Amino acid sequence: MHNGSRHPVSLWVAAFALTAALQIFRGALEDTIIFVAGGLLILLSTNVLGKVSLPSKRLTAGSNLDWAGMILLFALAFTPRHTFFNLGIFVLLLPLVLFMAWGAHSEPARPLTKRDRTTRLTWSVWAVAMCLWEFGANIAGQVSKLPNAFPTISVLVDPILKLELGQAGFVVVWLLVGYYLLKAGTK
């Protein structure tokens, strides 16, 4: 991952550090591990490993991505959430996902069009707004000891994910979106 900005550290590292701090505040050890590990990997990829070409094209070529998606589908859709097994899957997947997302084609090959810049800005504003909502609701719920009075997205979605069919459906949609983004990114 190349740090194409004028900042010495990727803004993604700051985002992961802030999210890790929220997980520490929440007392969520598993989520803290995931965000600290992700932040460290991104930090390494923007500085120490900045000149290394990651093998993303090879990992997303052929049926590798298809097989990985099928394995993930069964591993995540039919195992209990919030278990050591699920934590292990995410911690092991993090380096692989970074290799796939920030490889040789991580930066645009051509200058962005006005439409692309507008789309990027729109998605960025939406993502920041959702993060601010999550952070605010989470902190207000923690401080007031009434998480349902200030529902986060996870509080709203959790009843659906407690059902086996709901969890399986969520995993299918999540993997399909990720699959599409990785395949679109290689083009």
Q: How is the topology of this model organized?
A:
Blueprint: H1 11-26, H2 29-46, H3 56-60, H4 64-77, H5 84-101, H6 114-144, H7 153-161, H8 164-185
Helix pairs in contact: 1-2, 1-6, 2-5, 4-8
Written overview of the protein:
The chain has 2 domains: 1-52; 55-185, no CATH class. It has 8 helices and no strands. The chain has helices spanning 11-26, 29-46, 56-60, 64-77, 84-101, 114-144, 153-161, 164-185. Helix 1 runs antiparallel to helix 2 (29-46), helix 1 runs parallel beside helix 6 and helix 4 runs antiparallel to helix 8. The longest helix has 31 residues, at 114-144. The two termini are 17 Å apart.
Features:
187 residues, mainly alpha, 8 helices, globular, 2 domains
